[in-house]
């Protein structure tokens, strides 16, 4: 404090300056969620969903209560720290002082949102069993939202558990032989067999669950494992590459623990620690110098499917084809590659009834970008994006008519 007396105008200007400074400081810095008692599990999951911008445009606020509540939370989070009372009420969470499982909470939310939202997280696994003569004994395909990684399966206990090896283990072939033969209808007897698992459909967002809460076979009670896991930044599954952007962490014991989330913000490419209403930059940024990250608290790992080189080239080809076409396409081309893997897929699948999942399907369906405006918005209204599309179609049609009339006039000249 200095002793100089200030004029009211000067004070006002000072206050304005402070206000501006505050706004500047908070720009790009994510906001937290208030804890109602023990709702940290919900807060962590909501923050992950908020940072999963792929789902924002898919929320159907008009027909689904959960979609509407999620949208409200997301809109508030853009501006300031947010309450979750309406969300818990609509979700019928009566006891907000009771700790719940974050993975179950995520599944519950995915159950209740519209299918367009949950399909972003949905993948399919096909399990097959084939006898040594090549007969198919069993084949079944199941959908999943999260893939569990059993810490007990790993051979390297009690040392650091490798998430990459654990993930690969899901797809490892298993053999049945000797005293473990399987009955085959084709051979009409018990034979040796192999069973395998394939990712039939890759989810856009791949969620892995590190099974820290598991049943102890000796005591027959649930225990929590604080085992250190090695989390890779990138995961490869067939031709699809996934990149980690979020982790839900659990600290503490089985009953009295606490959940936080560590998420990469796309706005400033920085990892933040979300601890209820407190959000801070992670002091030592994960993956800054290494391709993996050691954690004894990581519980849910959320990976985003990256665009492949083949897809990139295809988009670029498509972009070049439209070069002498419409100006909008030309402008949008610049951002096509970087934005395609999120919002573009949303647009594509909204236009087509079947969800486009495989690289081949996506390649066939790639269209030049029409409206870039929706890419910058967190919750673009489907109507406005449709209007732009219709506008471009009309514009293109009109241009075509003009060109044809010019040609016709030219041909009729003597
Ligand atoms: Zn057989």
UniProtKB/TrEMBL annotation:
Enzyme Commission number: 3.4.19.12
Species whose genome carries this gene: Cottoperca gobio (Frogmouth)
Reactions it catalyzes: Thiol-dependent hydrolysis of ester, thioester, amide, peptide and isopeptide bonds formed by the C-terminal Gly of ubiquitin (a 76-residue protein attached to proteins as an intracellular targeting signal)
GO biological process, one term: proteolysis
Basic and acidic residues compositional bias, start-end: 8-17, 314-326
Protein keywords: Hydrolase, Membrane, Protease, Thiol protease, Transmembrane, Transmembrane helix, Ubl conjugation pathway
Domain USP: 31-306
PROSITE patterns assigned to the protein according to its UniProt record, in alphabetical order: USP_1 (PS00972), USP_2 (PS00973), USP_3 (PS50235)
Enzyme class: hydrolase
Name under which the protein is recorded: Ubiquitin carboxyl-terminal hydrolase
Pfam short name (any one): UCH
């Amino acid at each position: 404090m200095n002793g100089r007396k200030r004029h009211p105008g000067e004070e006002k200007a000072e206050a304005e300056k402070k206000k501006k400074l505050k706004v500047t400081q908070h720009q790009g810095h994510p906001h937290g969620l208030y804890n109602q008692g023990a709702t940290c599990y919900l807060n962590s999951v909501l923050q992950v969903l908020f940072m999963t911008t792929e789902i924002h445009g898919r929320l159907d606020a008009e027909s689904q209560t959960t979609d509407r509540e999620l949208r409200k939370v997301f809109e508030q989070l853009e501006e300031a720290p947010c309450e979750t009372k309406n969300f818990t009420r609509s979700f019928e969470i009566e006891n907000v002082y009771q700790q719940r499982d974050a993975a179950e909470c995520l599944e519950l939310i995915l159950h209740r949102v519209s299918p367009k939202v949950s399909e972003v997280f949905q993948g399919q696994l096909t399990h097959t069993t084939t006898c040594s003569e090549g007969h198919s004994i069993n084949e079944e395909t199941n959908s999943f939202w999260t893939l569990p990684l059993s810490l007990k399966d790993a051979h390297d206990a009690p040392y650091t558990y490798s998430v990459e090896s654990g993930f690969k283990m899901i797809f490892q072939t298993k053999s049945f032989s000797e005293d473990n033969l399987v009955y085959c209808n084709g051979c009409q007897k018990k034979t040796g067999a192999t069973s395998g698992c394939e990712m039939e459909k890759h989810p856009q967002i791949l969620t892995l669950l590190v099974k820290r809460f598991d049943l102890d076979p000796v005591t027959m009670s649930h225990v929590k494992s604080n085992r250190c896991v090695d989390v890779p930044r990138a995961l490869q599954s067939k031709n699809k590459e996934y990149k980690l952007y979020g982790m839900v962490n659990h600290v503490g014991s089985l009953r009295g623990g606490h959940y936080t989330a560590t998420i990469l913000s796309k706005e400033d490419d920085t990892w933040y620690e979300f601890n209820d209403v407190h959000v801070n930059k992670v002091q030592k940024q994960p993956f800054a110098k290494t391709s993996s990250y050691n954690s004894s608290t990581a519980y849910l790992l959320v990976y985003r499917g990256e665009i492949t080189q083949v897809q990139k080239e295809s988009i670029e080809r498509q972009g070049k084809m439209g070069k002498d076409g419409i100006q909008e396409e030309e402008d949008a081309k610049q951002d096509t590659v970087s934005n395609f893997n999120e919002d573009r897929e949303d647009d594509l699948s909204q236009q087509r009834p079947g969800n486009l999942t495989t690289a081949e399907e996506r390649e066939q369906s790639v269209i030049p970008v029409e409206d870039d405006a929706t890419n910058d918005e967190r919750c673009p209204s489907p109507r406005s994006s449709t209007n732009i599309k219709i506008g471009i179609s009309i514009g293109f049609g009109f241009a075509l008519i003009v060109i044809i009339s010019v040609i016709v006039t030219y041909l009729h000249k003597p």
